[in-house]
Design brief:
Number of helices: 5
Bound molecules: 2-amino-4-trifluoromethylsulfanyl-butyric acid, cobalt (II) ion
Oligomer: single chain
Structural class: alpha+beta
Number of strands: 15
């Protein structure tokens, strides 16, 4: 069941979206060799609470921390840990979801750790970013979810990478994960028709090698089956009553026109 949002509700969702995005702006300064993923978690957690938000991942279906930190071959849902310190050349996805005024704002970005980044890691990160925007450009009143997936898959595979199948984008609102599912692969013209009142994420996970993932014994950490690298970017979008498509998780820096990557 898709829960449609009024224009007023979509506008209200900007508060959560803006807080999550602001956190991604701010955490960038702390992503350096030697920092632990738990330190990044704690910075985001404390800022969220201080600004009246709730970190949605904490205790969500038993998830133990406030953000997801997914390094190198981790596809998604990496659990922050004091034992995991970032190293020169790592790539990390930081996924932040805040609840403000009862609504969720869900967004993630990649960060490159240090200066010495393997060329393939940088290219994968750039391709995953381009995939998010190929998906966003496919969103129109009357388009279908398959149009989003097809655009992403075509670009990713054309660049020699693969698209994760096991995790998908999702409707979002007062509930973290709502209908519809947004597949990041598939066929144009197929799937749910998009229209006014729909609010959902696009969050393609792009792998260096095979698209398959396996979940580690902690029940959360999803890693590539071949231990190749994985990269992901995420935005929350809404479609207003007049058909306008809005990104609800643009940050102050993005709005100010900072180059996206
Ligand atoms: N933010 C993730 C998403 O994009 C979900 C994280 S659920 C958690 O949907 F429990 F792992 F935090
Ligand atoms: Co999401
Ligand atoms: Co997310």
């Amino acid at each position: 069941m898709i829960v449609l949002k009024s224009d007023a509700e979509i506008d209200a969702m900007r508060s959560a979206g803006r807080l999550s995005a602001t956190l991604l702006d701010l955490i960038g300064d702390y992503v350096k060799p030697g920092v632990s993923t738990l330190e990044l978690n704690d910075i985001v957690h404390d800022y969220t609470v201080k600004h009246g938000g709730i970190p949605a991942p904490l205790n969500y279906k038993g998830f133990p921390k406030s953000i997801c930190t997914s390094v190198n071959e981790v596809v998604c849902h990496g659990i922050p840990s004091s034992k995991q310190k970032l190293k020169e050349g790592d790539i990390i996805n930081i996924d932040v979801t805040s609840i403000v005024d009862g609504f969720h704002g869900d967004t993630s970005r990649m960060y490159l750790v240090g200066q010495n980044i393997p060329p393939v890691a940088r290219r994968l990160t750039e391709v995953a970013h381009a995939c998010l925007f190929k998906g966003i450009e496919a969103v129109h009143d009357g388009a279908r979810t398959g149009d989003i997936g097809a655009a992403i898959q075509r670009y990713a595979e054309g660049q020699g990478f693969s698209v994760v199948r096991e995790f998908v984008g999702h409707g979002i609102g007062r509930v973290f994960h709502e209908d519809p599912q947004i597949l990041h692969y598939g066929q144009a013209g197929k799937g749910t028709r998009l229209g006014p009142g729909m609010v959902f994420t696009i969050e393609p996970m792009i792998n260096e090698g095979h698209w398959k993932v396996k979940v580690q014994r902690d029940g959360w950490t999803a890693v590539t089956i071949d231990n190749g690298l994985s990269a992901q970017w995420e935005h929350t979008l809404g479609i207003k009553s007049d058909g306008e498509v809005v990104i609800l998780t643009e940050s102050p820096l993005e709005i100010a026109g900072r180059p996206k990557m």
